[in-house]
Design a protein that fits this description.
single chain, Rossmann fold, UDP-galactose 4-epimerase, domain 1, 2 domains, seven-stranded parallel beta sheet
Length: 323
């Protein structure tokens, strides 16, 4: 298919573009490069533009026969969303509405949305199923929840078929070493551990030691970015054959605490992680653990790269190669 990938030069977007190209799809990569990196582009037609510019989007759909859209482009930092919620509500909502408007005007009815486990908030039970109530605890999560609400309404009104993929903790790097995580600033645990071990950050800050978990640190479900990319291609295949819309978790259904991740990094690298304990961050929940049953059933998806060892090994190789 001819697919438009919004935010295709970002972390998850770039891995998905690589997988789409490997499977023979024609990719138009749309990115404003505010956070996306040109060095993460592995092919396709690159269009520089901003989702806030509706006319620019319309021109892309006029110039290419697009069959489906994958939407990765959004602001993602939870802490920043508390400090500047207007920025997050304005960007994440309007950019999504513009993209949907442009595609519907062009008669494109297949949409894959990069959502988040943040839509659930503090879970009542784990593992979290897609039927769990959604009540986000931070503005970032609310923006994802609001776009999901828009998708429900647009599906009913405009015959839009969508799959919203609720990521848990994306981690790791391309096993071939071509792609990896390059956020600035970096807020994710595993790359921050790697950067601290490589001397590119001064130590590691561990946020929260008093959670109701076995060791007091937050527990998260880590999913390898290559497994995420594969899920998107399977979602595209699904929409090509079916018109039914879905909300699907993407996680490994196994959780690790922050201290467990630190110890595993030390084991793999042979180095000692210097960390400082800090208070909990606003909006952090004790545990997030995905039920992946529905994604397995709907997409035939099984995470194959998401052992903690493989996640850390691929991330370490990526960051070490960039010294």
């Amino acid at each position: 298919m001819n697919v438009l990938v919004a935010g295709g030069a970002g972390y998850i977007g770039s891995h998905t573009v690589k997988e789409l190209l490997a499977q023979g799809h024609n990719v138009t990569l749309f990115d404003n490069f505010s956070t996306g990196k040109r060095e993460l582009i592995t092919g396709g037609t690159v269009v520089e533009g901003d989702l806030m510019d509706l006319d620019r989007l319309r021109s892309v759909f006029r110039s290419a026969s697009i069959h489906a859209v994958l939407h990765f482009a959004s602001l993602i930092q939870v802490g920043e969303s508390f400090r500047d919620p207007q920025k997050y509500y304005t960007h994440n909502l309007i950019s999504s509405l513009n993209l949907l408007q442009a595609m519907l005007e062009a008669g494109v009815k297949r949409f894959i949305f990069s959502s988040s486990a943040a839509v659930y908030g503090a879970p009542h039970s784990t593992p979290i199923t897609e039927d769990h109530p959604c009540f986000p605890v931070n503005p970032y999560g609310w923006t994802k929840n609001m776009v999901e609400t828009v998708l429900r309404d647009y599906s009913r009104a405009y015959d839009l078929s969508f799959i919203a993929l609720r990521y848990f903790n994306a981690a790791g790097a391309d096993p071939q070493g071509r792609l990896g995580e390059m956020h600035d600033p970096e807020t994710h645990l595993i790359p921050n551990i790697c950067l601290s071990l490589l001397g590119r950050k001064s130590g590691l800050e561990l946020y929260g030691s008093d959670f109701p978990t076995p060791d007091g640190t937050a527990v998260r479900d880590y999913i390898h970015v290559t497994d995420l990319a594969l899920a998107h291609t399977l979602a595209l295949d699904n929409l090509a054959e079916n018109s039914e819309s879905h909300f699907l978790n993407l996680g490994a259904n196994h959780g690790y605490s922050v201290l467990e991740v630190i110890r595993k990094c030390e084991e793999i690298t042979g180095m000692t992680v210097d960390f400082r304990r800090k208070p909990r961050r606003r909006g952090d929940v004790p545990e997030l653990l995905a039920s992946k049953t529905r994604a397995e059933h709907v997409l035939g998806w099984t995470p194959r790269q998401s052992s903690l060892d493989n996640i850390i090994q691929t991330a370490w190789r990526w960051h070490s190669s960039r010294i």
